[in-house]
């Protein structure tokens, strides 16, 4: 895909994620934000805290990878390495397979409040700025260290696609929890 088209698509997707969380999740009460469909599942806040943990790492890595001064790289085809394709395929929102997360990225059992939502929205604003900064940059340059094994690097374009797809996946998960919570918390209770 052409770099300019990719950056535009990713920008649109991040703006949509921001709007979804701001309008559909932020207004929810604490009970709904912490609702779990089972003891093994994540609440809405745990889904977003998981993404915050990734954003703390990848937003910083992307900021380091992007040049501080505007570049003049022409639009170019953005490709995938084997590692980039594998990473992206695992987190794609339409990949229904569940994957175990690494321990330090797993927020299960954390005591979380609405500040998680605000942090997520700040990370989205930062990511939008990074996408703007990526304009004119060679997105095929290997410059973003992989979180779980920092000797490996992703290309800038791969890392951006990975981050956005991962966020889409878990925001969709959070929205499914919203639906389950609305059904469960608003169901009539039969008192005998």
UniProtKB/TrEMBL annotation:
Source organism: Hymenobacter elongatus
Superkingdom of this protein's organism: Bacteria
Designated name of the protein: DinB family protein
Listed InterPro entries: DinB-like, DinB/YfiT-like
Pfam families assigned: DinB_2 (PF12867)
DinB-like domain sequence ranges: 20-174
